[in-house]
Structure formats: C-alpha cells, structure tokens
Automatic annotation (TrEMBL):
Residues 482-731 form the Glycosyl transferase domain. It comes from Pipistrellus nathusii. InterPro entries: Exostosin, Exostosin_GT47, GT64_dom, Nucleotide-diphossugar_trans. This is Glucuronosyl-N-acetylglucosaminyl-proteoglycan 4-alpha-N-acetylglucosaminyltransferase. Signal peptide: none annotated. Pathway: Protein modification; protein glycosylation. Residues 113-397 form the Exostosin GT47 domain. It is found in: Endoplasmic reticulum membrane.
C-alpha cells in the first residue's frame, strides 16, 4: 500500500515537471522570436536598441503593468477592474508629487533674469469662475509681481477655477485634467501655483484635487501635515465667499482691558456631524460644556436627512443652540474653540482671529496657515483632539499676561495677513519669493512682529537696523543725523528767494548731515556759485522726468536714515528743524512735521473729503515740512502701483497725501504734529511758486478726488485721526525765556 502511494506521488511530480518545461519552453521561444523581430524592425528603421538590465530577464505575459492614469486604464480591454480608491489615488497629485521640493520640482533659472514675476493665464471663453477665485486672480494682477508676458514669468497661475474640487459642489469644474494638460505652458506643472479651498467629497473628503497637478505647488486650505510638502506647498486659511477682496475690517480689539478676561472663558457654536469623518470631536463637545463660562453649542439640524440620523441629544442641543447669539459670544469670549469639521480647516479660525478671541486649535494633523513663517504659539493654543477633557483646565492655567500677549498677536496677524483675499494671496507669493531668493529672505522676527512681512521688503536691505521698526529689538538708538531734501520747482532768480533762506536754516541745524536740492524746474540747473556756502555738503540733482513722484525716489545720495522733506517755499527756522528732529527720534516709524490736514466722511456725497481747516484733530502731516525714514522712499517707489503714481504725476498734486496713506497703512498709527505755527500757511500763500496752486479751487478738488482714489486702492481708509500735538517743555509757560531750550519757537 505504501509503495503504491510513493509511485503515485512520483508520477504526479513527473507530470508537473513535464508540463512546466513544455509551457516554459514555448514562452522562451516566443520571447526570443519577439526580440528578434523587434531587433530586425529596429534595424530597418535605423534605430539601435542598447541592451538594458531587463534584457537578461524573461518576459512574462501578465507581468505587473506600468502605472498609467485611471482614465487610460478604463479604455483598455485586458485590464482588471479598478476600485474607486485606486482611481482616486492614481489621479491624485498628492501621491504622485509627494517628494517634490523647490530643489527638485522648481526651475530657479526662470526667476534669475526678471526677478519674481507672476503670470496669470488668460481666461478661456465659456469657463465659469467663482467670485472667490476672481478675487484671487485680481489680487495677483493688481500686485507688483504681475506680468502679462509669460516669457518674463517666474511663476504661473491658472485661470481655470481650482478652488472648489468637491464633485457635489455647483462650483466644481469638470474635465479639468484635460483642460490643464492642453495648456502649452503647463510643462507638467513646473513653476505653477494652484489655489484650492475644498477637495474631496462625501463621505471621506480626501485631499485629492481631482486632477494630476504634476510638479505644481499647492496653496491649499485644510491640508494635513501628512500630505503637506514642506517648503514647497503653502497652507492657506479657509475663507468664505464674502471675504473682502482688499482692505478688510480691522480687528475688534479697540483697547487693551486689564485683566484681559471676558465674560466667557471658552466658546464654540457650530454644526455637529452625526456620522462620517469629523463627527467624533464635535460629538464629544457636550462633555466640556458647562452652560456658564464654557459654552460649546452644537446643532445637528442641518442637511436634508438630519432627522433620519438624529440621536437622543439632538433636540436638547438644538434648543440650547438657539439661546445664544454667535456674535455676542465671539465678542465676549477669551478663548474660541476651533475644532475640525468635515475637513481639517474651519471658518471659525479667521472669525476668532478677527474677534481677538484666542483660537484653541482642535484639529489633529492640520498644517496651520502660513506655518512656514508664522509662529502660531504666539497667537493660539494648540490642543489635541484626544485630550478634549483637559482643554478647560489648560486654558484656565494660562497667565493673564500671556493671554493679553496672545490676544494682541491675533490682531496683528489678522490685519497683516488674513483680513482680505489680497493679503492672503500676497502672503503666499511673498513666502514663495523668500524661498527663491534665500539670501535676502525675511526672518521670523519680520514675519511675526509689526508691521509684518508684506511691508518689510528684503530687497531694500538684509539688515534689520536699516528699517525704522526694529531699533528697540536690536538695542539701537535712532539716527542722530538727517538729510534735508528740498523740492525746487521755480527758477533761481534772486538771492532773497525763500528756497535759499530755507537752505541756510536747515544747514545750520546741529543734526543736518547734508542737503539735497531736487531740481524739478524746467529751467537749467543754476551755477554752483549761485548756491550759498554752508558747513554741510549741498548736492543738486535733477529730478527724474520732472514729475512729482521723483521727490520720493530712493536716491543713493541720501546717506542718512532720516529725511527732512521740504517744499521750496516752506519757512522754518533752525530751532524748529532741531525740535522736529528730536521728536522724530522718539517716533522713527512715523511722519513728524508741521503742516497738518484732515480727512472726513461726507454723508451727503458718500465719499471722503479733504480739509485744511484748523480743527481739534488731524490725520495727515504734509511732506512740505516733515521728517520721516528714508525707507518710505523705497516703499513708495516699489510697493505702490504705477497707476497711483501716474495719477500723482499727471495732476502734479497729491504726492504728500499718498505718502501719508502709505505710512499710516504700514504703521496703523497717525502722524505726529509738532508746535503749531500759523505763519506757515499764511507765509506760503504769499509766495509766488505756491500761491496759484493753493488758491486754485481745482487744486483743492483734485485733492478730494485723490483721497477717494487712494482709499479705493487700499480697500479701506488707512488715515487715523489724532489730537496729539507735541510742544517743547515749558512752551508758552510764564517762566523766564532763558530757561527754555527752544525759546525761539515762541517768537514765530
């Protein structure tokens, strides 16, 4: 019996070996024949195949197929069925380009010749674009980075709407893959930036944007740290369709209350998801809600089928939810919970920032917006979804000093980077520019301290001490000397002209380093002997194109940080110059000077008005007699759009108003007026060069128009009223004149 079994096993094994050799031999012969055919065919076509590593390996009929996109797989008959997940992964840019970094997927050579320029593809006929994406494109086209010439571009942005890639959304753009691939500049996405707010759809809400982005960068909301490509992608905040395009509202923190605690310690009001992703965290919030100073309100009353899935808590939660007004909670809370929703990001994030309500993040794995440059530990509390029950005790342990610092930082970040679509877009572009030009990139201090990265241009200087905002941080004293820049527009015909008296008064100042006369007159430059002899250098330069904006060009001749800007017909004494400069040394980031003006809102005309009347407040100090930091020359020239500067040059007017708009927008502070001098206006009206301009009603009407044009571009009114005037100590006090340092000012 045992012998029969052995014979049977041997016979079976022999049969299997025979079959194996038979079929294997057929396959080997077929593969050799096919290789001979390929070789002979290649020889006939003039092609020579070099032996590769796979030459010595057998070719199996059903070997693993190379990766191809899912839509190509569907067109082949021999392929096995592909699951929806495999299709999604195949089409997802996240899986294909996950290893992309600036060094491997970005062509730096495109940026070397023309700098950082951004090209937006022209809009295709019939393509729908959501308002939010139109705002993004408008922000790029209105920026100093924009170019209409693709050959000069360093970065490319699609005109195809990629913001909403949820297939259930009415804003979803179909066939985006084929449309993108047909673009002749696409180049597999290299040097392209794609904006996205929503990706994936019910039920799992993956981060798949639904088309192959190749080597393009993503500026994406709700992106996870797992899929975020460091120093390549940019995490942006989730913002609503109503988010303002430019300007935006200021933060709600009007003054610092001490102690900084509000009525509620922690609040949240939002949807509760009964099933699906994102439901766990919000479903557990009721454990922390105490109905007193911790209000975490949720409702399951949303969606079409909410009643089918409602649980035993729904009715009670809905009743509690309706009792409280969300705005009232937001404005009266110290901390605001920001839990994840269906996606990692939430609208509650920006709402909390604006309301000066310290965000408590409860969204594990979310790459926070602009995390590459913003230190969120200075403005938010980063929680853990798994430790929800510890959140109340954690925030109660935060010291009041820390709460105040967190709250102040929320206001800075909101106004610097998040209050408008334009700021979100510009912050994204500036981050990418810093990656490209690392040798002049901004450091963490610039990004996380007022005035922020958008107003501190690293092309000006790589040294923080060259900017007027960081003297205290660096332990530096403000500059001890200034350069007087006199704007001359009338010919020099007499030695008694006001411009020569002004020049002498400025030259006698103990703080004056040099004087520059900007000759914007149509007549030729006067001979050197026509200018008076002074103890400081006098440099006369011709204005570029003889336009008004040329007075604010960043001339290399200006060697000091402080600039005393003067109109040729200004009347100032040396004492006044000295006093104004000593005041400026205490406020180096602001405009300090003498002639003040104000703005107001005209309800009857529904527009901004301009007034030179003497009132109890002011919002502008004209640059006809003012001191400011020379960095504002660079900012005026390189930050402001050409349209505003061209308007100033065409009108030969409003350059001083535009400079005040710019400085107030940067500092969020008013200028500073020094000792009042009635003779300033009256004397100017008596001079020949300015009399016609100041008396001309058209001149005043132009300034009214300028105010509204400038406010429109900034998106809001940056000018701030002030009632502060700085006078010398003992100014007009009934004491001996010999006890007063600036005694000559009282005689003017």
């Amino acid at each position: 019996m045992q012998a029969k079994k052995r014979y049977f096993i041997l016979l079976s094994a022999g049969s299997c070996l025979a079959l194996l050799f038979y079929f294997g031999g057929l396959q080997l012969r077929a593969s050799r024949r096919s290789r001979r055919e390929e070789h002979s065919s290649g020889g006939r076509n003039g092609l020579h195949h070099h032996p590769g590593p796979d030459r010595f390996w057998p070719r199996f009929p059903d070997a693993l197929r190379p990766f191809v996109p899912g839509d190509q797989l569907e067109n082949e008959d021999s392929v096995a069925p592909v699951s929806p997940r495999q299709k999604r992964d195949a089409n997802s840019s996240i899986y294909k380009g996950k290893k992309c970094r600036m060094e491997s997927c970005f062509d730096f050579a495109l940026c070397k010749k023309n700098g950082f320029k951004v090209y937006v593809y022209p809009q295709q006929k019939g393509e729908k674009i959501a308002e939010s994406y139109q705002n993004i494109l408008a922000a790029i086209e209105g920026s100093r980075f924009y170019t209409s010439d693709p050959s000069q571009a360093c970065l490319f942005v699609l005109s195809l709407d990629t913001l909403d890639r949820d297939q259930l959304s009415p804003q979803y753009v179909h066939n985006l893959r084929s449309k993108v691939q047909s673009l002749h500049l696409w180049n597999n996405g290299r040097n392209h930036l794609i904006f996205n707010l929503y990706s994936g759809t019910w039920p799992d809400y993956t981060e798949d944007v639904g088309f192959d982005i190749g080597q393009a960068m993503l500026a994406k909301a709700s992106i996870s740290t797992e899929n975020f490509r460091p120093n390549f992608d940019v995490s942006i905040p989730l913002f609503s369709k109503d988010h303002p395009r430019t300007g935006g509202e200021r933060g709600f923190l009007k003054f610092n209350t001490i102690p900084p605690l509000r009525k509620y310690m922690l609040v949240f009001k939002g949807k509760r998801y009964l099933t699906g992703i994102g439901s766990d965290t919000r479903n557990a919030l009721y454990h922390v809600h105490n109905g007193e100073d911790v209000l975490l309100l949720t409702t399951c009353k949303h969606g079409k089928d909410w009643q089918k899935h409602k649980d035993s808590r729904c009715d009670r939660d809905n009743t509690e939810y309706e009792k409280y007004d969300y705005r009232e909670m937001l404005h009266n809370a110290t901390f605001c919970l920001v839990p994840r929703g269906r996606r990692l990001g939430s609208f509650r994030f920006l709402e909390a920032l604006q309301a000066a309500c310290v965000p408590v993040m409860l969204s594990n794995g979310w790459e926070l917006p602009f995390s590459e440059v913003i230190n969120w530990n200075q403005a938010a509390v980063i929680g853990d979804e798994r430790l929800l029950l510890q959140i109340p005790s954690t925030i109660r342990s935060i010291h009041q000093d820390k709460i105040l610092a967190l709250r102040q930082q929320t206001q800075f970040l909101w106004e610097a980077y998040f209050s408008s679509v334009e700021k979100i877009v510009l912050t994204t572009l500036e981050i990418i520019q810093d990656r490209i030009f690392k040798h002049i990139s901004r450091n963490s201090l610039i990004w996380n301290k007022h005035p922020g990265g958008l107003f501190v241009l690293p092309q000006y200087s790589s040294y923080l001490g060259d900017f007027p905002y960081y003297y205290a941080n660096l332990g530096l004293k403000p500059p001890s000397k200034f350069t007087a820049v006199i704007h001359a527009v009338t010919p020099l015909v007499s030695q008694s002209q006001p411009v020569l008296k002004l020049l002498m008064a400025a030259a006698k100042s103990q703080y004056c380093a040099q004087i520059i006369v900007l000759w914007n007159c149509d007549k030729p430059l006067p001979a050197k002997h026509r200018w008076p002899a002074t103890t400081v250098p006098v440099i006369v330069i011709e204005g570029e194109s003889k336009v008004m904006s040329s007075r604010f060009l960043p001339y290399d001749n200006i060697v000091t940080d402080a600039v005393l800007s003067l109109d040729e017909d200004t009347v100032l004494s040396t004492t006044e110059v000295d006093f104004a400069f000593t005041v400026w040394q205490s406020f180096p980031e602001r405009i300090v000077g003498y002639p003040a003006r104000s703005h107001f809102w005209d309800n009857s005309k529904e527009r901004w008005g301009y007034t030179s009347k003497w009132t109890n407040d002011y919002s502008m100090v004209l640059t006809g007699a003012a001191i400011y930091h020379k960095y504002y020359h660079y900012l005026y020239t390189h930050y402001l759009p050409a349209s505003l500067k061209n308007m100033v040059d065409q009108l030969a007017n409003c350059e001083d108003i535009l400079m005040n708009f710019l400085v107030s927008a940067v500092t969020k502070l008013p200028p500073i007026k020094v000792t009042q001098k009635k003779q300033y206006k009256e004397t100017m009206m008596g001079q020949t060069s300015r009399a016609s301009r100041w008396a001309d009603p058209d001149h005043f009407a132009q300034r009214q128009s300028c105010m509204n044009t400038f406010a429109s571009w900034f998106g809001y009114m940056p000018l701030i009223h002030s009632q502060m005037r700085l006078d010398p100590v003992l100014f007009k006090d009934q004491v001996s004149i010999l006890r007063k340092k600036y005694r000559d000012i009282e005689r003017l």
